[in-house]
């Protein structure tokens, strides 16, 4: 969209008059050189556009009367559309399946093998789950070149199943999180979310779908003691997640109007200091309202020892003096996929 010379990039939706062909996604990133090809693809442009679109929506908003509206978790100011509520129902159904696959009590060195049972149950029911919780017209969107060929469901299903970790390796990591973001982006491109004012539906997606997804994933990780996927150890930002740090830092950045660019520095007036991530009492206070601190809180749940020792990159970031907008800006330098964890057919 464009307004008086100011433009906000929005992920374009499929134009039915142009036509589109759906394919079964396959793993295309297997080694380092494949990442270069991915970074030049339309798939990468689409996923980054969607990510930044969601990110902008989480910046506090300047209201016409001069007040500032922030967007904490469980905000009463955010209304959930029918598609968002359907996705919440989908997540609730996945959570209920956890009861059917209790952790194995036998000795183990790595992740709990019962995760494989849970994942198998989800995989066996995936089509029916999507049919129950997503629009039938959306799922059955045909390939215009071959109406009898694969429908949109084939692509959505692959990204959906890629969002829950690896049953073979008993691990979960940022690539699986990225697959869920691609799943939501696919729904967006298929006109699966209503057309609202800028930022309205995006905020509902972040607070109503992505945060519950992250909470469910954390429950799965703890229940089945999943290993970090492709972890760089202390040299990685986080063993499991990335996007809560993007959206969470946006929540704490200065307010913007609909016609302003996102700032490059500064913080919301009453935002906690960035170095609060190293203080357990501040983390505990903020984790219920902020995505960044909710991710930090999970680290406190699963790791022991000094924060600077087990999370040195996050500790270094906490020393940034220019505020949460600067921390949010750091995303431009680090949103790069790890080999082997992203499906792309572009």
From TrEMBL:
| Keywords for the protein's UniProt record, in alphabetical order | Cytoplasm, Isomerase, Nucleus, Rotamase
InterPro entries for this protein = Phstyr_phstse_ac (IPR004327), PTPA_C_lid (IPR043170), PTPA_sf (IPR037218)
The molecular function terms of the Gene Ontology recorded here are: peptidyl-prolyl cis-trans isomerase activity; protein tyrosine phosphatase activator activity
User: Where is it mostly found?
Assistant: cytoplasm
Any single GO CC term annotated in Swiss-Prot or TrEMBL for this entry: nucleus
Its EC number(s): 5.2.1.8
Q: What does this protein do?
A: PPIases accelerate the folding of proteins. It catalyzes the cis-trans isomerization of proline imidic peptide bonds in oligopeptides. Acts as a regulatory subunit for PP2A-like phosphatases modulating their activity or substrate specificity, probably by inducing a conformational change in the catalytic subunit, a direct target of the PPIase. Can reactivate inactive phosphatase PP2A-phosphatase methylesterase complexes (PP2Ai) in presence of ATP and Mg(2+) by dissociating the inactive form from the complex.
Tell me, which GO biological process terms does this entry list?
mitotic spindle organization
Keyword flag Nucleus = yes
Query: Member of which family?
Result: Belongs to the PTPA-type PPIase family.
Q: What is this protein called?
A: Serine/threonine-protein phosphatase 2A activator
Q: What class of enzyme is it?
A: isomerase
Catalysed reactions listed for this entry: [protein]-peptidylproline (omega=180) = [protein]-peptidylproline (omega=0)
Q: Give the organism, scientific name.
A: Aspergillus ochraceoroseus IBT 24754
Where does the record say this protein resides? Cytoplasm; Nucleus
């Amino acid at each position: 969209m464009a307004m008086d010379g100011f433009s906000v990039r929005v992920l374009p939706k499929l134009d039915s008059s142009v036509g589109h062909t759906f394919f079964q996604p396959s793993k295309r990133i297997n080694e380092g050189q494949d990442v270069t090809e991915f970074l030049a693809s339309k798939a990468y442009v689409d996923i980054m556009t969607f990510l930044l679109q969601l990110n902008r929506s989480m910046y506090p908003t300047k209201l016409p009367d001069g007040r500032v509206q922030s967007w904490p978790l469980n905000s009463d100011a955010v209304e959930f559309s029918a598609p968002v509520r359907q996705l919440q129902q989908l997540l609730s159904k996945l959570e209920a399946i956890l009861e059917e696959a209790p952790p194995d009590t036998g000795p183990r060195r790595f992740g709990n093998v019962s995760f494989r049972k849970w994942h198998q149950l989800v995989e066996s029911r995936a089509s029916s789950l999507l049919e129950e919780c997503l629009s039938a017209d959306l799922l059955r969107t045909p390939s215009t070149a071959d109406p009898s060929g694969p429908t949109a469901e084939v692509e959505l299903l692959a990204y959906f199943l890629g969002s829950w970790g690896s049953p073979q390796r008993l691990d979960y990591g940022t690539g699986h999180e990225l697959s869920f973001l691609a799943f939501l982006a696919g729904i967006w491109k298929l006109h699966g979310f209503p057309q609202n004012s800028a930022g309205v539906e995006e905020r509902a997606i972040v607070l109503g779908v992505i945060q519950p997804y992250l909470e469910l994933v954390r429950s799965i990780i703890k229940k089945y003691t999943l290993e970090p996927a492709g972890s760089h150890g202390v040299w990685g930002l986080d063993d499991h997640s990335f996007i809560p740090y993007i959206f969470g830092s946006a929540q704490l950045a200065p307010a913007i109007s609909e016609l302003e660019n996102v700032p490059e520095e500064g913080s919301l007036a009453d935002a906690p200091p960035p170095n609060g991530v190293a203080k357990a009492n501040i983390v505990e206070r903020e984790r219920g309202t902020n995505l960044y601190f909710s991710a930090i809180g999970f680290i406190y749940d699963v790791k022991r020892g000094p924060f600077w020792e087990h999370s040195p990159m996050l500790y270094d970031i906490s020393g940034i003096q220019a505020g949460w907008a600067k921390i949010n800006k750091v995303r431009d330098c680090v949103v790069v996929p790890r080999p082997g964890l992203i499906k792309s057919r572009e």
